[in-house]
Predict the structure.
Amino acid sequence: MGGKSSYVRQVALITLLSQIGSFVPASSCSLTLLDGIYTRIGAYDSIMTSQSTFQVELSETSSILKSATSRSLVILDELGRGTSTHDGVAIAGAVLDWVVRETKCLCLFITHYQSLASVAKGFEGEELRNVHMKFSAVEKEGEGAGEEEITFLYEVGDGVAHRSYGLNVARLANVPQAVLDKAALKSHELEMEVKQKKMVSLSRLMNDVLAMKGGSDLQELVVGMEEL
């Protein structure tokens, strides 16, 4: 809803236009020559080949990893969403790390897995950078007070979007209010559950630090407090 997929499609099309010497719809454009544009966008299964949505994702991703070079443009949109959260995050994170460290090509990687934002901390320079689609949130007054009115700005900004506005999009789609209320309650419960687990983990780290088990525990505690 924020325009992520439209943005990366635009980049691919502009790149293709520039490669063939065509008009580019931009005020300015600076691009290197590329040997290929590889994309993994959309979600669908393949009945003819008996492949699930997730298997199609991985098959296309595998082909990209084998074909792309350091002179390629790679676009991966929501990799890992076709399976469980843990496996999805693990596969998406491993693919992202491989593309940046091994392939070393131009890459746009879209994800809703906020934990993947920490992958950028493993790189010292500008090899990997987090950006997000900008939005503004204004709390409503009067009827509907307490709710936020979201305006998507369709601009790219630096850093990570620290929360999702899926419920607001559901409201724009006219999902029944009773369903939205139930979803909001469940979302709050899950959020509190995650925070509680983080607090338990941090308390254990604190005990280790106080017991003087090592400086690495202190560094891990600082990182954990920042994420919380």
Summary: The beta strands are 36-40, 72-77, 106-110, 131-139, 148-158.
